[in-house]
Design goal:
The protein is an alpha/beta fold. The chain has one domain (10-242): NAD(P)-binding Rossmann-like Domain (Rossmann fold, 3-Layer(aba) Sandwich), CATH 3.40.50.720. The chain is built from 8 helices and 7 strands. The chain has helices at residues 19-30, 42-52, 66-79, 104-132, 153-173, 191-198, 204-210, 219-230, and strands spanning 10-13, 34-37, 56-58, 86-89, 135-140, 178-185, 241-244. Helix 3 packs parallel to helix 4. The two termini are 34 Å apart.
């Protein structure tokens, strides 16, 4: 779709120098929004912001640390003129290990980045949204929030928690003008997934066959949903977890 559905809006998109986050940032800029680009790597943030032009501003931060999350909130709001209309919580990583071998440090890191960081940033940004009685928060969850995979205990727990956090924030803030939704992608053809395929960790052909639509998704397909949920077209949608997995979680046969 084309158009300027986010004309004049401002957004922070975390984890937006690659993959799904980058696709969302690009789509937001193309739809008329000004966007803060974020990752842990300052050089990557600057590089991506430069490719997107004057509508993008870089703010690097490690979102596994609450002090860094709060700094992102401050600097992001400042870069956007003091107002954030849209927050996309996207930054995240898995730690893959058998549950009996999963290090406590890896478990805690995964929840700090994938869940606590989302809570702290949402809380910081929502205060301004609630004061203006307007705003949209979109959490990038995963089909693993409801479909368990082995060796991904911390990741699955973080995404299940994120789904519930989305719903609780949504019902608390709905009457005050702030919508909170989540997108739960299945397998998406990101650089990370391609790298795992090249290393022989993932079989993309097998994943495509397991998916009823016969392929895995693209970052741009997730971005399109993120544009819609941030736009006036989704004005009566809150508390939803939109699964985008090509039918994977609906199909029970292995």
């Amino acid at each position: 779709m084309t158009g300027r559905r986010l004309e004049g809006r401002t957004a922070i998109v975390t984890g937006s120098t690659k993959g799904i986050g980058l696709a969302i940032a690009r789509a937001y800029v193309s739809e008329g929004a000004r966007v803060v680009i974020n990752s842990r790597d300052a050089d990557d943030c600057v590089r991506v912001a430069q490719t997107l032009g004057e509508s993008a501003a870089p703010v690097a931060a490690d979102l596994s640390r609450s002090d860094e999350v709060r700094r992102l909130a401050r600097e992001g709001q400042s870069a956007l003129g003091g107002r954030v209309d849209i927050l996309v919580n996207n930054a995240g990583q898995p730690r893959v290990a058998p549950s009996e071998e999963l290090a406590e440090a890896d478990y805690r890191y995964t929840l700090d980045l994938n869940l606590t960081g989302y809570f702290v940033l949402s809380q910081e940004i929502a205060r301004g949204m609630l004061a203006r009685t307007s705003g949209a928060i979109i959490n990038i969850s995963s089909m693993n929030g409801s479909v368990p995979f082995p060796h991904r205990l911390a990741y699955c727990v973080s995404k299940a928690g994120l789904n519930m956090m989305t719903k609780v924030m949504a019902i608390e803030w709905a009457a005050r003008g702030v919508r909170v939704n989540a997108i739960a992608p299945g397998y998406v053809e990101t650089e990370f997934v391609k790298t795992l395929s090249q290393k022989g960790i993932l079989d993309l052909d097998k994943l495509a066959r397991r998916t009823p639509m016969g392929r895995i998704g693209t970052p741009e397909e997730i971005a399109e949903a993120a544009v819609f949920l941030a736009s006036p077209g989704a004005s009566f949608i809150t508390g939803e977890v939109l699964t985008i997995d090509g039918g994977w979680s609906s199909y029970g046969y292995l």
